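Let us work through a complete example step by step.
Step 1: write down the sequence.
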Amino acid sequence: MKEISTEIVIQGSSVDVWNVLTDFRSYPRWNPFIKEIRGDLIVGSKLELKIVTPKKKVRTYNPVVTVVTPNSELRWYGRAFMPGILDGERIFKINHNGSQSVRFEHKEIFSGLGALIGSRFLVKDVFESENNMNSALKLEVESKNKTMTELR
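Step 2: predict the structure and record it as tokens.
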């Protein structure tokens, strides 16, 4: 098993972060990693994800939603090929961090033969992808909050 974990502090509320994280239609505009998600946020439902790696490889996955806790946690579990070759659980957690910020955790836990064989390359690509998405999420949430503040 291989776990890759990243985090970032975002100025905003857990509701702000959740709203951007779960607005799948806006992903193509702001998300450099997960370019497209189709499906419903219902435990047990299947999603269709299109990701773009830092090396610009495009991949499509069909994970199953396993946890939906509004304003707190979202998880899905999928397989890259056949069961046991490369399985992964993606986890997003939003943790209240103080008066006006949250700590956003983004991790993936891999298992299977592929996690052992390609772990060095896998770790580097996934770590970079997660960090890129985290930074873009932070920018999206904070810019929306700034716009709302300016409108008041």
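Step 3: interpret the result. The chain has a mean pLDDT of 89.
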